[in-house]
UniProtKB/TrEMBL annotation:
A Pfam family per the record: FHA
Stored PROSITE patterns: FHA_DOMAIN (PS50006)
FHA domain residues: 19-68
Alphabetized InterPro entries for the sequence: Cell_Proc_Reg/RNA_Proc (IPR050923), FHA_dom (IPR000253), SMAD_FHA_dom_sf (IPR008984)
Protein name: FHA domain-containing protein
PANTHER family: NUCLEAR INHIBITOR OF PROTEIN PHOSPHATASE-1
Length: 307
């Protein structure tokens, strides 16, 4: 994700598709410096590169000794520095990769940024909505069983509160294009369950290395789905491992709202590891509401007894 560094404060800022820089409190990057205009400059992701633009500032935007004309746009490559108002404030584009998805809350102006290619709203503690790139290269939003395409600047109302999406163009240069990132179909998921079924240790095996996920209660959802997949070993792949919503809720002694939150959280843990198509960790059938695990290489084992 594109990242800007303030050379004066040493602070780092994750960049959205459009980033307004200036002294005004509504700016994405606020600079409390008298030589900086209220709305001084902007950074914009064009689909292939970052561009810097002066917004008619009084004291100018400077790049490599050149003062930009009002409204002038120039490419900004990784490692390049620019200053606002002469020596008023200096920034470096220390990470020039494409921006991730984000959303801005209308009332407060708070901005939520995706991590690992997945955006959870209204927050990661109680996620109700996931926004992510699907397997066909489109931005989609998932609310319960409902998966719909979404666009940049589209407004979503979540728990009665409007959010505006900031979605970068998907031109093959997104986070999923990194060939070093493991694909979902190439990982192995090992779920170790304690004798009393109260603890689960989840480990992801990727290309010969192992990553143990921080322990979370939603791991038991994965255990339940994995067991259904493994027990259905004689069924055709398309029919294997599906569980109805009511049956799943009974097995977990919970309701569907909690199941949906756990699905969002489980996917996010995998996304943070850099796994491509982490949203596929749990699959849904919108027509029937059935759910199954999306990892094809999975095992459920007993946790070793403590000595």
């Amino acid at each position: 994700m594109g990242t800007l560094k303030n050379e004066s404060t040493q602070a780092y800022v994750s960049l959205g598709v459009r980033c307004l820089i200036g002294r005004h409190s509504a700016c994405d990057v606020r600079v409390d410096e008298r030589r900086v205009s209220a709305e001084h400059a902007s950074l914009h992701w064009t689909g292939g590169r970052w561009e810097l633009r002066d917004l008619g500032s009084r004291n100018g935007t400077w790049l490599g000794g050149h003062r930009l004309s009002p409204g002038e746009r120039v490419p900004l490559a990784e490692g390049m520095a620019f200053s606002l108002g002469g020596a008023g404030a200096t920034f470096v584009l220390c990470e020039g990769s494409p921006p991730g998805a984000a959303a801005r809350h209308h009332a407060s102006g708070a901005r939520r940024a995706a991590s690992g290619g997945m955006l959870l709203l209204p927050d990661e503690e109680l996620p109700l909505v996931s926004v992510f790139e699907d397997g066909e290269g489109n931005w989609v939003t998932e609310i319960g069983d409902d998966v719909q395409p979404v666009e940049d600047q589209q407004v979503l109302t979540i728990a009665g509160e409007p959010w505006t999406l900031e979605l970068p163009p998907l031109d093959g240069a997104t986070w999923q294009s990194d060939i070093r990132s493991p694909a979902l179909e190439n990982i192995h998921l090992r779920l170790a369950v304690s004798q009393n079924e109260e603890q689960v240790a989840a480990t992801v095996v990727m290309g010969g290395r192992e990553a143990e996920l921080p322990a979370r209660t939603h791991h038991y959802l994965l255990v339940t789905l994995a067991r259904a997949w493994l027990e259905d070993h004689d069924a055709p792949a398309a029919k294997r491992g599906w569980l109805g919503r009511d049956a799943l809720c009974r097995m977990l002694a919970t309701d569907m709202n909690k199941v949906n939150v756990d699905i969002h959280r489980a996917r996010k843990q995998l996304a943070v590891l850099g796994v491509q198509n982490a949203a596929g960790l749990v699959e849904r059938r919108a027509s029937t509401g059935e759910i199954r695990i999306g990892v094809r290489s999975v095992e459920v084992v007993r946790m070793a007894a403590a000595r």
